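JOB MANIFEST
job_type = single_chain_structure
chain_count = 1
residues = 528
[input]
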Amino acid sequence: MPASHWLYSWKTIVILSILFPPLGFVLIWLRPSTRLSRRILNSIYVSILAIFYLHRFAGLRIERDGSGMMPILTFQKSSEVNYAELERNRARHAQLPLSQPVADDIRMAAPASVDEPAKLLESRPSQPASPGTMPKAEPAKSTSAYWTDFRGPKRDGNYKEMGILTRWPAQGLPQLWKQPIGGGYASFVVAAGRAFTIEQRRNREVVAAYDLETGRELWTDGWEADFRESLGGDGPRATPTWHQGLVYALGAVGELRCLDARSGKLLWNRNILRDAQAENLQWGMSAAPLIVDDNVILLPGGRPGKSVVAYNKNTGTPVWQALDDRQAYTSPMLVTLAGRRQILMISAQRVAGLSTDDGRVLWEFPWVTSYDVNSAQPLVIGDNQVFISAGYGHGAALAEVARSGDGLSVKLLWQNVNMKNKFNSSVYQDGHIYGLDEGILSCVNAATGERKWKGGRYGYGQVLLASGHLIVLTESGELVSVKATSDSHVEVSRFPAIQGKTWNHPALANGLLLVRNMTEMACFKITP
């Protein structure tokens, strides 16, 4: 067909490229007698136009993956659109029967004006967003309190409450509900049939309580705070802690709140950065509050002598403060090593065991990572060993804590680069450690540090352990079941769970699996 045919005229190609870029792209390469350089140049123009359309109308976003270097394409709505959808969804909650699960069809509704969600919220018959106020609710379906801490009861990502379904249906696990959520990287804690998390909603950080089985929002407590970070992302990071009917939540800029888990009533609050006269970290306050006896332990990183602080868990009164460390992004853990109960902490410069009474150092081991980014949780192995890991080429180590006279000593057993956890913590089973080595699932022998296998590119997601299987929530929002075996990488099941870049840890309680990211949350039944 001659090049002068109307279909191959440049005017036609330009019009079709504007109306439907893929067709224009094809015609550019089918057009006879066109120089290669011109084809390439025009293809670039059409590709840029297609990317603009996808960004404008389909929510295409170019973000950095967990390495901080590689771009990833995600289809997420802008924060403004997501906030509008979130507000419409929560306004709808108040109009639904209490026993009806929330649906995600509200996401498909026509976009509302910025003012419309606010009007909907103002007209709600009951307003759970006010502290101490919530809709009349039926009694909680469960009184259990199992997954009440970040990454589970021992903060080690190991779920032992009940057996789970390890081979999943082709279409995925049964979904109880899915809906929008505010921004941030916190996970959930679960108790008494409720799930608690902290989110960014416009210029406010918000602690929210949801009915576990229906997803209905029961109450919120919020305050003005808007942490922004161009590399890591915006919003609060630290997962709340539930303890004896109270929720302890820490925002990205240091606001600590104690709330009644049933009503959302504010009982007390402090700003830990202000109290410690500390500057915020580059990626914000990320350590989940830890309850130890009558105190709640926080890591503001104040100097001198205010790096670790304890407040009375019931009143918020300061109890003690200790150390001069610049803090990092791990959460403290209550552990027993060498027969001594202690607080396990990783700062920007060391891993240490601290006295539960006053924060005094019982033992320490140097652990310095580039950019002060220690953000993976340690693992306690056996009675006296601690596994630690970090990214940026640092690697992993196993240290042994032992009695030494009236005190404790520590020695290095091995150190190598076979497991480089960045902000993706490992799990332990039967002598082996499983985790994401810079985005690739790996298994190492805990006793020797020898790598057993490496396979499965799941990105910078998160890993839990349950029923002899690894539950991997990938960086792209897929859920994957992998056998926890040292023989080889064996993937059992996989399905898409939520959309968009997903760095948040999943949570497991009552046989239900909760996942979230910056824009979406969902709940799946994972028991047989």
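[summary]
The chain is about 15% helix and 35% strand.
The two ends are 62 Å apart (CA to CA).
exit_status = 0
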